[in-house]
Amino acid sequence: MPKHFVSLGLFILDEFEFLDATGKPTGKTLPTQIGGGGTYAAVGARIWLPASEVGQVVDRGDDFPASVQKELDNYGSEMW
């Protein structure tokens, strides 16, 4: 089936690290989260379209986290 919406926008893995008042790392972090304008556009398109009609280019390196791939697959594995 042809795609009706494809995003070539950014796909980013956001990593969060917290600093204290002096700028030193506190050791507190948050899990890696998906982000980027292209990602949010594709996820938003899923409100109106099935996953088979939505797409986004995601460039995965050898170190691409399996947990992130699982999260993407929850939106519809055929999108990515």
Low-confidence stretches: none
| H/E element order | EEEHEH
Major sheet description: 2 strands, parallel
Q: Compute the gyration radius: what is it? A: 15 Å
Number of strands: 4
Proportion in helices: 25-40%
Number of domains: 1
Instruction: Give the structural class.
Output: alpha+beta
* Beta-strand residue fraction: 25-35%
| Count of DSSP H/I helices | 2
Largest sheet strand order: 1-4
**What's the rounded overall pLDDT mean?**
92
Structural overview:
- There is one protein chain.
- The chain has 80 residues and is α+β, with helices and mostly antiparallel strands.
- The protein has two helices and four strands.
- The chain has helices at residues 37-45, 66-76, and strands at residues 5-7, 12-19, 25-35, 54-56.
- The strands form two sheets. The chain has a two-stranded parallel sheet with strand order 1-4. It has a two-stranded antiparallel sheet with strand order 2-3.
- Strand 2 and strand 3 (25-35) form a beta hairpin.
- It is elongated and about 55 Å long.
- It starts with a strand and ends with a helix.
- The model has no long low-confidence stretch (mean pLDDT 92).
Write the layout of secondary structure elements.
Blueprint: E1 5-7, E2 12-19, E3 25-35, H1 37-45, E4 54-56, H2 66-76
Parallel strand pairs: 1-4
Antiparallel strand pairs: 2-3
